[in-house]
Amino acid sequence: MLTLLFSQIVGHTVEWHIGAGWNAVSSRSTVSRVVISLDTLREIHERGYVINAYCPRCDRHRFLDLEGLIGAGHGERRFMGLRVACRVCGSRAELRLIWPGRR
Asked: Where along the chain do its domains lie?
């Protein structure tokens, strides 16, 4: 499961952690901490995140159609372990989770 822990100061994210190790990227005094789960495609979409697929062989980027995947019954598929192939060359694409507003 992919879990993110955010620490916020006056609405600005200043610290984040990924996975079971909870390794801090930066640290400051915080007002609140919020843990969110981004395990399934539905959870990712509902929280406003997007998934970018990158093919290193073709050097192409494409955003996954999360609404289409959820509508086709794939909303409960887990993000971790998800495999996507490039439509041009068939190589396995690298997936990147993009924060809301960073698209």
From this structure: 1-37, 48-103
pLDDT, tens only, 19-67: 444 444 444 544 556 677 788 999 999 999 999 999 999 999 999 999 9
**Residue 81 near residue 95, CB atoms below 8 Å:** no
How many Å apart are CA 15 and CA 7, to the nearest integer?
A: 5
Give the CA radius of gyration of the chain: 15
The reply to whether the predicted model has a pTM over 0.85 is no
- DSSP letters along 71-93, please? IIIITT-BSTT---B-TTT-PBP
**DSSP bridge pairs for 36:** 4
Paired tokens of 69: 């995947």
